[in-house]
From TrEMBL, chain B:
Pfam families: BPD_transp_2
Keyword Membrane attached: yes
Family matches, as InterPro entries: ABC_transp_permease (IPR001851), LivM-like (IPR043428)
CDD domains (alphabetical): TM_PBP1_LivM_like
Native source organism of the sequence: Nocardioides acrostichi
Keyword field contains Transmembrane helix: yes
Record-annotated membrane-spanning stretches: 15-32, 39-59, 65-85, 171-193, 205-223, 235-256, 282-306, 318-347, 368-387
Record's bilayer topology term: Multi-pass membrane protein
Name of the featured protein: Branched-chain amino acid ABC transporter permease
Subcellular location: Cell membrane
Main location: membrane
One GO CC annotation: plasma membrane
Keyword tags: Cell membrane, Membrane, Transmembrane, Transmembrane helix
Amino acid sequence: MIPLARSATSWRPTTYAGLLAALLAMVGLVLASLVSILSVTTTRADAVATLCLPQPNVSGCISGTVGNRTTPVEGADVSLLDKDGTEIDKITTEADGKFSFEVKEAGAYYLRVDPESLPDDLEIIPPAAKFQGPDGSIKVNAKLGKLTSPALEVRNKDYQSGGKGFGSEIVQSIAQGLRLGLLLALASIGLSLIYGTTGLSNFAHAEQVTLGGMMGYLFCNVLGLNLWLGVVIVTLVCAGSGFLQDMVIWKPLRRRGLGLTQMMIVTIGLSLAAQYCFQMFVGASQQKVVVENLDVFTLGPITLTKLSLVAMAISLVAVGLVGYVLIYTRVGQATRAVSDNPALAAASGIDVDRIVRGVWTVAAGLAGLGGILYALVVSNGIRWDTGMQILLLLFAAVTLGGLGTAFGAFVGAIIIGLVVELAGPLGAPGDLKYAVALAILILLLLVRPQGLLGRAVRVG
Amino acid sequence: MDQIFAILNATVSEAIAPATAGVAIAVIGLNLHFGFTGLLNIGQAGFMLLGAYGMAISVVQGVPMFFAVLIGLGLAILFATILGAPTLKLRGDYLAIVTISAAEIIRYVGRLAQFEKCEWSWCKKGTDFTGGSQGITSSTFTTPFKSISFFGDGAWTLSPFNYTSLGGSTAVRVLGLLVFLALVVGTVFFVRARRAAAARSWTDRLVVAVLVVLSVATLLFVFPQTMSRTQTDGWWVRAVAWTLVAVSTIVVLLLVRSPWGRLLRGIREDEEAMRSLGKNVFAVKMQALIIGGLFGALGGMVYVLASSVQADSLGRQITFFAYTALLIGGAASIFGPVLGTVIFYSARILIREAARTYVPNSILSDNQAQAFSFVVVGVILMLIVIFRPQGILGNKRELRFHV
């Protein structure tokens, strides 16, 4: 048999320790100075003055926020016009930027924000052509018994000419990229460890990420637990799910001698089932983990929520911990041995099943932690398919770094995070930023199939 | 009783839908990849989407139908070559990751607002290009397809001889349903009995074919389907779609029985052995990838004919469904893909409609019933792979591939 590429790592602790240190230093530079100033305070938004509750067949609601949740616009005059352009109602937003109208008839309405009432440097982002109404208004289709939330986001007027400055936009993207990369790293290290120790490409790993976000929604939003307590509980619950999964599904299947390809298809089935379970129980809409507005932190051109910085720090600590355990402890040594050659590891007295069980537990826990943090700071909520959207980024990160190498996955995740966030300012429109990451992956496979940190062996 | 008939009617209607036929063709291609050659292609939806875009955009730009189809197929060949060249020399996982990534790239690009309308000098300005996330509606590209129809106008019922001809009472329908069940059970027992006997003769095959045709006829007798002859979602599309399914099945049958087909199986079982026999494994894998991809593109064209070319409707889900269908029917079998797809699509509708009708809305709303049907699909996929990896028609000995 050809040695599989999952054993393609030469684990030289010093190299990796050095590499890890360098990366820690790099990311730490951005973080270290900031974390100290931090106290994550979240202010509960004031209750909306006119709360609108849609009633079936009686009334519908049109409500939303001027600006977005992190930067709402105060004092904007929002008018509701009927389809002939007659003003029906008018609201001036308060500090939370929220507006809300009740309508008694379904049909088309127009929303107009008075440009004069906006701060001088801001303008409303024009909607897609078919939603554009007369005089810069936005067309809204209201339905009875439904809440319609049109997007009234703002941007800098000189947005097109790069008003923020191309340079500072790049810096901001780098910060966001590091954030995305660190959170991806949490999930992809687990994916890589599972691949390393069992040879399985786990397509259901993304659902572990979603599970983390969903659990966060359950504990922090529905049950109203303290956020940090919630994060700890979510991580533990997700780790437990990994433990159970290995006990109920994967270990019996390994015992049966089910081939890796078949196992991979089982993970695809599990991923489908899990996704739609989420959709069944939580619905298809986006759910917030915390309902409060998040404080923003600004340093030069970089604007991030303070929570982002904490999330990045947590992620770094978790990754560092995994790295430390892998390199310096006996369990870590055993894990690496199983990764290199399971049969030989078993022969030298390592309980392979126990190690694999541990890997599943840790991997699911890390993914869950990544999931709740991702829902908190990147995607601003969790949806049934949030995980699926980043699944390919995870695979790209793992493959980029070298299949089955934990540190490769970390490096790969950071690179993918940066690529995804930098693709926008460098000219890739819309969702194409994800496509750019995948294209880079394919190109890399052309020249270096073993990945960045994998050792060149024959694969196939 | 009426409720049950309504549910079953929806199921039958889904079973013969053009979308089902389209996926069936794509699954036939996937079977060539995964079942016969052992190539783990998780980007079949990408092939489908390319085929659909290739044909639809060409037609909108005024290319004749025949050449539009060729353009779609040509794109699939190009796609397969680009994907295969770097990965077919590597272990199977790489092909898997690259195909799924490439399929997603196509979907992302197709959704881009920049490509929504045609704004370049080489195409008709202002016409739909990819249509962005809304997609290209079928009315803009199916006119040439409908114009070659010789089915005439108006509506038509299949089958013309149905339960209403015999008075239309419930008893007749129940009786017909029982006959259908008896025929299916009979077919299963016959096939099993003859499979035990080593050699299968032509008469056996004829008997099975007659039994299958009779069951389908009985089903349509109980659940007659009325549709327009030529309009968008009518009989013309269905006739073409299922003819293509039949043709694809026959082509694959001939291919895998050829010396080339034996090469495929050899590669699936032991690539090194094939190499040591002096075969060009890389070239053969590439040929398999291209041919399977052509079926994928063809399936994509059929899939969109009755609906619209929309990037998101041909995403990863479709590939996963295709795998489920393939494994239900039986990988590396000839009729498995078609049987699996029909069972997969109709069973999902059956589950959904039954859940909507019989489970009160307070427990499962309509949307939840839809989600529930997908959960069942996922669980079935897992259970099949674990407990009956050969599916319904497959041969367990054919499934020892290790990609």
